[in-house]
TrEMBL record:
The chain crosses the membrane at residues 70-96. The keyword Transmembrane applies. InterPro entries: DUF5719. Keywords: Membrane, Transmembrane, Transmembrane helix. Residues 1-21 have a biased composition (Low complexity). Residues 1-69 are annotated as: Disordered. This is Large extracellular alpha-helical protein. It comes from the Bacteria.
């Protein structure tokens, strides 16, 4: 690997009023409690007491000069003539040229005010309720060493730190990161890039990182949580970025076979109720599961869904999460038990949406001979590295897979061209690839979803760990990259075609952004950079990363000294500037 040394609407009512001779219909009544709306009987319109009686002559109008029935016939005939004439006018009007005022004008771009940046950090990993304790003296289900911590950083804009905080879902503040900004610096004065940070704060529930907009620009902020345990069924380490809530997101890599537990957490950090629907894709195709639609998530709450209840015995499962109303943050807590031996814990975070190209970086592969011996053992087939492909559309995808390592491209033993069936998931083994860190690039002419699995530990019967690398965004300018404290930490970068230059500046716990270093990375390679514990005497809690040149991708790879722990954190997208939307005028 390349080693670089870092520096220390609702429609309106129709026109006109109802005829006075016709009774108005009662308004539609809501459904009684416990009775569906479709079962409510429609209201029956009732007329007055005079219904069915012969109308009297009072109030009737006679045609002038008319006599009896002949006058009535004449009146009807006149009405017919008037209506016919009106129809002619309408018909003639439809042939007239369209007035200039009704023509569509070109779309204009309208600025959208920037809002607060939000990131939802998953809560601590927990066992399912009802798990029995004391089944094994060495590997107890409950953990006495489990700890969950959050680190976050918020960058200044125009010399001003945005108001930001880390809060619980109920809105109570866990910690104020930076107070609301004061007056802006004097124009022309040097504006040094600064940061406000949360360094390794212990948490016991879901938390929300928020940062206000500054000068109508979205704040640059990001956070990450890290869970660790050295005992219990959930021993290992798991890390996840604090993801932005969305109404549409994809997660790949879940498993519901025996010994595998996948729990989908849906968090609504908004003030609007969210109604969530799930689309599930397994190896046999899309799964129609009762109970996967219309899941209500109240504001300020998290709803947990055990995926085995919707799609049991699925070795490879992808989930499409869509919400109406409030946006939600989705993540999957996944854990493995191989008999009584803990096989790892991880958080599956949303990746990029289905596209014709997917890239995962920071994929760590162990010794291929050791992996072959391990995966041959009963219950260890899914302990090896693999790529999971999901094709949500109706056409099969012919996917070309390329692996880029420290010294260039490596071929897959399978040849690297795979046909992934439409509407289902396909697993591609990465067995036989030499040990090292890789960037995996997959491309097709059909949109698909992808994620890569990695593991640590080569001895059957000993605790191991597993992690998933979600598909990542292309690097741009000024990504905030939080780094969990402790253990082995690396920045991993992959460049696909030609050269790219990566600059990375450490953020320290005292709120300073230190001097940046740069790495020139050749195309078709993957480079890793060891993260030091400190820079200039202060703890490193994150980085500011920018890229130029060819398409580059990045991830943070996290491990523990002396243990088989592994976690991967994909970089979040950089904060966007002032957003605009096209507005079409016309009627």
């Amino acid at each position: 690997m390349h080693e670089h040394t870092p520096p220390a609407a609702k429609a309106g009512a129709g026109a006109g009023a109802p005829d006075a001779a016709e009774p108005s219909l009662p308004a539609e009544q809501p459904a009684p409690a416990g009775k569906p709306a479709s079962a409510v009987e429609p209201a029956v319109a009732e007329t007055g007491a005079g219904q069915g009686r012969k109308p009297s002559g009072r109030g009737s109008t006679r045609m002038p000069g008319g006599k009896g029935r002949a006058a009535s016939v004449a009146g009807v005939a006149a009405g017919v003539l008037i209506l016919a004439g009106g129809g002619a006018v309408v018909a003639a009007g439809s042939l007239m040229p369209e007035p200039a005022s009704s023509r569509t004008v070109p779309a204009a771009e309208a600025a959208v005010p920037a809002g607060a940046s939000l990131g939802v950090c998953p809560g601590p990993a927990r066992l399912l309720e009802g798990t029995e304790a004391g089944t094994d003296a060495q590997f107890r289900p409950e953990s006495a060493t489990a700890a969950t911590r959050v680190s976050a950083a918020v960058l200044s804009a125009g010399g001003v730190l945005p108001g930001s905080r880390l809060a619980h879902l109920d809105g109570t503040a866990a910690v104020d990161i930076a107070k609301d900004p004061g007056p802006a610096p004097t124009p022309g004065a040097p504006q040094e890039l600064r940061a406000a940070v949360v360094a390794d704060r212990t948490v016991d529930q879901v938390n929300v990182l928020s940062a206000n907009a500054v000068a109508n620009q979205n704040a640059s902020a990001a956070g990450a949580m890290k869970y660790t345990a050295t005992d219990g069924d959930l021993q290992g380490s798991a890390a996840a970025t604090c993801v932005q809530p969305s109404n549409d997101q994809w997660l790949a890599g879940a498993s519901t076979t025996v010994g595998r537990t996948s729990i989908l957490a849906l968090t609504n950090a908004s003030s609007t109720p969210a109604t969530v629907s799930l689309e599930l894709f397994g190896s046999g195709g899309q799964i129609q599961a009762p109970g996967s639609r219309g899941l209500l998530v109240a504001p300020g709450t998290t709803r947990s869904v055990v995926l085995a209840g919707l799609a049991p015995n699925e070795s490879q499962l992808s989930v499409h999460v869509r919400s109406a109303g409030g946006p939600v943050a989705a993540s999957i807590q996944q854990s493995f038990l191989r008999g009584l031996t803990p096989g790892g814990v991880d958080y599956i975070s949303p990746g990029t949406a289905p596209a014709v190209r997917q890239v995962m970086t920071g994929v760590d592969i162990q010794d291929p001979a050791g992996l072959a011996a391990l995966t041959a053992q009963p219950g260890y087939r899914d302990a090896g590295p693999a790529l999971e492909l999901t094709v949500p559309g109706a056409s099969d995808a012919v996917v070309e897979i390329k692996l880029y390592g420290r010294d260039g491209q490596h071929a897959l033993p399978s040849g690297g061209v795979i046909t992934a069936k439409a509407g289902s998931t396909t697993e591609v083994s990465l067995a036989g690839v030499p040990a090292g860190q890789y960037t995996v690039a997959a491309s097709s002419d059909v949109s698909f979803l992808a994620a890569a699995r990695m593991s640590r530990g080569l001895q059957a019967g000993q605790a191991s760990d597993v992690a998933w690398a979600a598909s990542a965004v292309r690097l741009g300018s000024q990504h905030v990259v939080p780094v969990p404290k402790g253990g082995q930490r690396q920045l991993v970068f992959g460049v696909l075609d030609t050269r790219a230059t990566i600059t990375y500046a450490p953020i320290t716990a005292d709120g300073k952004v230190r001097a940046a270093a740069s790495a020139d990375i050749a195309g078709g390679t993957t480079a890793s950079i060891s993260i030091p514990a400190q820079a200039e005497g202060a703890d490193v809690v994150g980085y500011v990363v920018s890229a130029s040149g060819d398409a580059a991708y990045g991830a943070v790879l996290v491990g523990q000294d002396g243990r088989n722990d592994v976690s991967s954190l994909a970089f979040l997208a950089a904060a966007a500037g002032q957003e605009t939307v096209p507005v079409t005028l016309g009627y």
